[in-house]
Structures are given as structure tokens and as C-alpha cells.
Input
Amino acid sequence: MNFYINTERLTLRPFRESDASSLNAIANQPYVLKWMPDWESDVEDTTCLIQYFISQYTLAGKYKARVMFAVELGGKVIGMVGIGNKKEVENEIEIAYFVSEAYTGKGYITEAAKAVSHWALDNLKMEYLIAIVEPDNYPSQRVVEKCGFSKIDKRMILNSGESEEKPFFYYRLYNA
Output
């Protein structure tokens, strides 16, 4: 299976251990941690996480997947987009993403998320992909909606990295 995706402006590729410092710097930005607190870590932890990602690429399938892509612009890692089983939502496969605050508002993460969504549905032959988004995370809502996800309902979820349940919009993108 090919884990390289080129879009109009971006290269989406498997992570390498050498990406640890860049990914860690982006993941620890307050802008990212506001929505994804479980990504807070040091470079050593991020290196271990990337090693785990690397071990998971060849195991991806229709019902179990953990495939994370580095989002590159001009050879520089600017974010992450990936899919993975979300235990908090009946172990369905979710898309997740973030981009460095310096690159927000330019459509990069929408471009990357759309490409990975189609890659996942086509290559893994999944029936659907999900996204969960906090009601006040308007930029992320716009991303999933521009990618073709439909809002199904609102659910109370104890998300990873959180200590209390809170509401999330639950979206699905079906394989055509």
C-alpha cells in the first residue's frame, strides 16, 4: 500500500524519527493543545510515538488502523493528519489533524484531511470514517464539512487527555 500522497500544494508521507522535534514543537503549541490536550509531550515521548506510528503502517485494515501522515509544505513539516480507532467512540476509525498556528487559515489542513479521507476510504475499503469536533471548534467543523463529512448528532464523550465528558459533534463520511 502506498503511504505517500501528493496534493496540489502538499506532500503527505509517513513519519520518520527525524520528524520528532518538528512534530513536538507543533503539537505543544497552545493553539493545538486547546483542542488536543493528549498531544502534550516532550521530544523523547514524541520520538516514541513516531516509532509506534511507523510500526502501525503495515497493519492498517478496514476495521483497525493507525495511519499518521506528516503534512509537508515545501519540505517542511507543518502538521499531522491521520486516522485511527477511537476507543471513546465505539472503536470507530476517526480522522484527526492539526497544523502549526502559523499555517492556519490557508486551507492546508482541509486539503490534507480531504486527501487522507479519500485515501483511507479507497485503500482500506472502509464503509465510513468519523470525525468528532467540539461545538466551539469552528475551524475544525469547517474542515470536516469541506471534506464532505455530515453531522450525525451530538454526543457526550470522555476524550483522551480530558478528565470529564463534554459534548462533541459526531460526523461521518461514507464511502461512495
